UniProtKB/TrEMBL annotation:
One of its GO terms (molecular function) is glucose-1-phosphate cytidylyltransferase activity. It comes from the Bacteria. Keywords: Nucleotidyltransferase, Transferase. InterPro entries: G1P_cyt_trans (IPR046981), G1P_cyt_trans-like (IPR013446), NTP_transferase_dom (IPR005835), Nucleotide-diphossugar_trans (IPR029044). This is Glucose-1-phosphate cytidylyltransferase. Gene3D superfamilies: Spore Coat Polysaccharide Biosynthesis Protein SpsA, Chain A. Pfam families: NTP_transferase. GO terms for biological process: O antigen biosynthetic process. It comes from Pontibaca salina. Residues 3-201 form the Nucleotidyl transferase domain.
């Protein structure tokens, strides 16, 4: 099963970083967040990716060309006809289709442009800026169990501010940015059947709007409720928070380290 990742947006709310590189290449712990996302899937044995490029897509192409050839230890012998010798394969066994989907194309259009690269069967989809400790195998099993066209992962994100707990008017505790108790939001990490492409009319369609709304109207959208860790990197504040979590050593989304 292939995994599609949308990596073409301009990331305007993270302009301090995205003026020079696309948002999926903003680094957490010295690695692009796109690398973190791919490692989540790879941990569960899914190593075949189709990445939708747009804004500064050449940056992502260059990274993966160099990632495969420059990772690990090398010996450079300039007298040899093949001057570079790699000692070992020090990287994940990924196959990555890097597909140009246009600078201005919206999310639904990017998904549809990936159709020729997704094999005509069930596929996964996520955004290039969100990480989670979601169990991909359980997600897929849930999708297969209900027989509908689409599964969306529903999450409760961390609250933006800390909460106070009261006993009457007395403050009895502070809770530092707990998970919100109200409502569920779109956490991406989709599993989709190829018929979903029929719900996307063209480039200027937001996948989050008409396609998902119409799938829900037709009774074809099911929610996998994930109560564990989930975070998206929309702003510089989000980036700093993820870096702080990484530096603490408690890295809930880094399932490949556990």
């Amino acid at each position: 099963m292939k995994t599609a990742i949308l990596a073409g947006g301009k990331g305007t709310r993270l302009a301090e970083e995205t003026s020079v590189r696309p948002k999926p290449m903003v680094e957490i712990g010295g690695k692009p967040i796109l690398w973190h996302i791919m490692n989540i899937y790879s941990h569960y044995g899914f190593n075949d990716f189709a990445v939708a490029l747009g804004y500064k897509g050449e940056y992502i192409k260059r990274y993966f060309v160099e990632y495969g050839s420059l990772s690990g230890n090398l010996t450079v012998d300039l007298e040899n006809s093949e001057p570079v010798r790699r000692h070992e394969q020090d990287h994940a066994p990924w196959k990555i289709d890097l597909i140009e989907t246009g600078d201005e194309t919206l999310t639904g259009g990017r998904v549809k442009r990936l159709k020729p690269y997704l094999g005509g069967s069930t596929f996964m989809l996520t955004w290039g800026d969100g990480v989670s400790d979601i169990d991909i195998n359980n997600l897929i099993a849930f999708h297969k169990s209900h027989g509908k066209l689409a599964t969306i992962t529903a999450v409760r994100p961390q609250a933006r501010y800390g909460h106070m707990r009261f006993d009457g008017e007395q403050v009895i505790a502070f809770e530092e940015k707990p998970q919100t108790a109200e409502g569920w939001i779109n956490g991406a990490f989709f599993v989709l059947e190829p018929e979903v492409f029929d719900y996307i009319e063209g480039d200027m369609v937001m996948f989050e709007h008409a396609p998902l709304e119409n799938l829900a109207r037709d009774g074809q959208l099911m929610a996998y409720r994930h109560t564990g860790f989930w975070a998206a990197m929309d702003t510089l504040r989000d980036k700093y928070n993820l870096q702080k979590i990484w530096d603490s050593g408690d890295r809930p989304w880094a399932v490949w380290e556990q």
